Amino acid sequence: MSWQVYVNVNMVGSGKIKNGCILGRDKSVWAKSDGFDLSAKEIENIVNAFDDSSHILGAGLFLKGEKYLVLRADDRSIYSKKGDCGACCVRTNQAVLVGQFQEPTKSGEANLVIENLADYLIGMDY
What we know:
single chain; 33% helix; globular; alpha+beta
């Protein structure tokens, strides 16, 4: 299975996601958009936030060094916003999907893309 296809076609190809990546729950990078390079610390914070969101709720979520205000965080989804941009992170059985969007895309549109892809991967035991 080529994980890059999911980023290129299902995320960015939707027209709703500007940048995206698929991370393993082991904090590895499975696939990513060109230039969407998250630091090891950012990846660690994202993956760990699904088990304990207290840190990102107070300090924010960082993507490529930019701080996003966390609007919602639970054991499945993290929604965040920064100006005219936002991000949605969703955990599956084996992975974490990260999608970054920018206006005119609305958060609900972007979240739906990432949430639906996560549901599909969960259904495929990923």
